[in-house]
Fold:
Amino acid sequence: MRAPVQAPVRAPVTALQGVVPRTAPVPAAPQPVPRTRRPAISAEPSWGKPRRPQTGRGRSRDEVGWVKAHGGAGVTSLVEVFGGVDIGARWPDPSRGEPRRVVLVGRTSARGLRSVSQALGLLNDGIAPQGLQLLAVVLVADAPGRLPLGLLRQIRVLRSVARVQRVPWIAAWRVGATPKALPRQISRLAELVGSGVHGEGAVS
Structure:
């Protein structure tokens, strides 16, 4: 007799054939928000572009306007001695009621003389506002002692286009103090700006 034929044993079906199991959608990763780079804030505005366009507005046009050719020129100390208006790093506009008589101030360093030359170029080229009267270019000593020959030559060039008045090194200004006496060169500058300050005397 033949043995009975047994049916093959099939593995249990765990998934339907031909059907791909569905998976839960994976949420997309959040995209980083691009950061906008803020422009760097300069401590000193570009020459001719003041932070406050109305500097000097409302003051008398007959007052002397002190214009700094660069930062740290010494305008603050000069205004405290002679009075007048600290215009900033630009030429004032008399049509807006700002001073028409101006003094350009810079240091005797290479950078200072270069900045003075650039500011004078704007004035001589007619780029500055109309109606300005340049009383003098005031060069404040950047250090005690004599100047190198190269810097003296640059000052000689400036003298060929404008009246130059030099202010010697005043140690008290370096520490923000008031000098007990002012050098005689201050008297010449006082005459130019119409101030009653006298040199070689005690400061009241």
